[in-house]
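Researcher: Structure prediction, please.
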Amino acid sequence: MNIMDSIEGCFQLMGGDFTNAGTASSELKSTLSKLGVSQEVVRRAAIAAFEAEMNVIIHAVAGTMHYVVSSEEVRITLTDMGPGIEDIELAMQEGYSTAPDWVREMGWGAGMGLPNIKKNADRFKIDSVVGEGTTLEIVIYTRKD
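Model: Predicted structure follows.
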């Protein structure tokens, strides 16, 4: 990939907007493919971004997904205005979910979002303040050297 400068993008996410769920992560995936990023990195970034995007739609009032692509990495930052996460360690366990029943009835909220994000990231940081919101920082390296 020959990126001289970093390329950035930002998406606004609205809580409860299941109609547009996946749009931001799909656009990121398309951008990475057009830039010639390896398919493995594109796949990992798309999975992590989709899971994070769905968490905003399920749990928050609103949020943003911002990405920066450079020759070294894809950095995806999500910030939401949501309830925050009371127990991050518990939330990182596969199968743990605070999604409401109506979301689970739609097929979402299985408690795999944060674990899947961590699995697909080379670096993953989560900061959350109960009653204010959550910020995720996801970094995927674009090259192995």
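Model: The longest helix spans residues 39-59.
Researcher: Thanks, that helps.
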